[in-house]
């Protein structure tokens, strides 16, 4: 989420080139929530007194999530100025694929599919049949996907929103 507020007059050194276009705004005690669709979808919080037609500034709390917020702000700014937006670095392509498989495996299991049926859907009949099922690495993989999907459903998905930082 990018938090925006009215820029004080003493900081506004250049005129606003183009207003920030936001979708439908929903009022809340914090201000107005909106989604900006353009290049990338960005969740915005416009603090009270902010108007999208005037000069705005971003508010970035200095805490453990600062670097992730700054990255989101850069992506938002590039999108607003029609510049190439770099990919989100919170998840790699491999992690996105695994997350999708976890959700599909959990959904299949919840709907009564066996681990073998899930493996067949993911990897094909030939690959599943090529090894003894009880000792198959595909069986272990599918069980791990179902467990991981269950953990995500139980609240683990919140970790996806945060960068893992090296100590």
What does this structure look like?
A hairpin with a 2-residue loop joins strand 2 (26-28) and strand 3 (31-38). The chain starts with a strand and ends in a 14-residue tail after the last helix. It has helices at residues 66-80, 93-110, 115-123, 125-129, 137-153; strands at 2-6, 26-28, 31-38, 40-46, 56-59. A 5-stranded mixed sheet has the order 2-3-4-1-5. It folds into 2 domains: 2-80, no CATH class; 93-161, no CATH class. The model has no long low-confidence stretch (mean pLDDT 86). With 167 residues, it is of the alpha+beta class.
Q: What labels describe this entry?
A:
167 residues; alpha+beta; 2 domains; 16% strand
Q: Secondary-structure map with pairings?
A:
Layout: E1 2-6, E2 26-28, E3 31-38, E4 40-46, E5 56-59, H1 66-80, H2 93-110, H3 115-123, H4 125-129, H5 137-153
Helix pairs in contact: 2-5, 3-5
Question: TL;DR of this structure?
Answer:
By secondary structure, this protein is of the alpha+beta class. It has helices at 66-80, 93-110, 115-123, 125-129, 137-153, and strands at 2-6, 26-28, 31-38, 40-46, 56-59. It has a 5-stranded mixed β-sheet.
Residue ranges: pLDDT <50 for 5 or more in a row?
A: none
Number of helices in the DSSP assignment: 5
Q: Which H/E pattern describes the elements?
A: EEEEEHHHHH
Overall mean confidence score, pLDDT: 86
Estimated radius of gyration: 22 Å
The count of domains is: 2
Number of separate strands: 5
Overall geometry comes to elongated
Q: How can the largest sheet be summarized?
A: 5 strands, mixed
Strand order of the largest sheet: 2-3-4-1-5
Overall SS class: alpha+beta
- The rounded distance between the terminal residues' Cα atoms is 25 Å
> What share of the residues does DSSP label as strand, in percent?
15-25%
Helix content, binned percent: 25-40%
């Amino acid at each position: 989420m990018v938090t925006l507020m009215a820029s004080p007059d003493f900081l506004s050194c250049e005129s606003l080139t183009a207003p920030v276009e936001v979708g439908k705004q929903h009022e809340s005690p914090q201000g107005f929530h909106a989604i900006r669709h353009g290049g990338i979808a960005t969740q915005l919080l416009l603090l009270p007194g902010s108007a999208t037609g005037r000069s705005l500034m971003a508010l970035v709390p200095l805490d453990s999530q600062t670097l992730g917020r700054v990255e989101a702000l850069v992506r938002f700014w590039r999108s607003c100025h029609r510049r190439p937006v770099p990919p989100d670095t919170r998840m790699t392509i491999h992690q996105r694929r695994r997350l999708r498989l976890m959700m599909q495996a959990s959904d299949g299991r919840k709907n009564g599919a066996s681990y073998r049926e899930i493996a067949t859907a993911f990897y094909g009949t030939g690959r599943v049949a090529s090894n003894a099922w009880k000792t198959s690495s595909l069986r272990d993989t599918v069980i791990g996907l179902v467990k991981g999907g269950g953990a995500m459903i139980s609240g683990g998905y919140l970790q996806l929103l945060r960068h893992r930082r090296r100590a």
